[in-house]
Amino acid sequence: MTIFAFALVTTSAFTHALWNFLSKRKNPQAAFFLMASIASGVILSPLLIIFRDGLAVIPPPVWGLIAATGVVQSLYYIFLAAAYRNGDLSHAYPLARSMPVVFIAFVSVLLGRGEQIQPLAYAGFTLVTLGCIFLPLPKFSDIHPWQYRHKWVLFALLAAVCITVYTLLDDQSLRMLRSLPDTPLSNLGWALLFGELEAISISFFFTILLLGSKIERDTLMQARVPEWKTAAVMGTIIMGTYGLVLLSMAYVRNVSYVFAFRQLSIPIGAALGMLVRKESATPPKLAGIALIVTGLVLAALG
């Protein structure tokens, strides 16, 4: 990982923890994330004009990947909101953010790119998995399958699967765009344009998915100006955060390294949950977070 990529991913880690902290409200609804996506898409719409030369050369397969990532990210927000409704930020956030590191490494091996991942990184992935096992336990002596039979565990894992899928989709999309002959845009230009197209795709498919839920429809229809302003701020932070990640993908050997190191947001998010929201700080939770962070550092250095 280059110094530039390190700086981009570290910045995104802090902003990612911030928007998740802000989204963990009393009763988080997926409709709020839809509002954030719509608002960010509108705010960043001038990028469609600024980078119009890029729009003209995007190949059909990339348009298909943009549609696919819109569906997957919509599901991610639905599962994330459900995880936050049913569990603590300091529980759900570390689990949802750390497991994709393991998933992405596994998929990379299946795709024949395992040689890009060093042995030290695999040791890190093992520690991440162990930390996730400790995370939900009230006490160390309580290790038992029923300790993981919580709704927040299921939804956090589903969110983690979605993160894995859309990260791989986005990595493939940007690889294809950057490799275009006589590409009209820089790495930064492609990252910004792709982020805007992604926001539009998410907003479209998210709307379709939420139309089937009366609660979510009512939340959206009853939203007032202050809530839309909050959503606009949130959406801008979300897109800015992920834009940094998209750009950093151009400066690493394997996307799993980007994903591993950006999980610096895990201790930040967990600390916000325990210190600001006064969530419990049990020994297994603290040990689990420590193992996850240690594993992620090993993965990033490997």
Average of per-residue pLDDT values: 83
How many distinct helices?
Answer: 14
Radius of gyration over alpha carbons?
Answer: 19 Å
What sort of overall outline do the alpha carbons produce when their principal axes are compared?
Answer: globular
Low-confidence stretches: none
H/E topology pattern = HHHHHHHHHHHHHH
Biggest beta sheet attributes:
none
How many strand segments? Answer: 0
State the separation between the terminal residues, measured CA to CA.
10 Å
> Helix share of residues?
over 70%
Global structural class: mainly alpha
Strand content: under 5%
Key phrases:
302 residues, mainly alpha, 14 helices, globular
Describe the structure.
- With 302 residues, the protein is an all-alpha fold.
- Helices cover 76% and strands 0% of the residues.
- The chain is built from 14 helices and no strands.
- Helix 6 crosses helix 8 and helix 9 crosses helix 11.
- The N and C termini lie close together (10 Å).
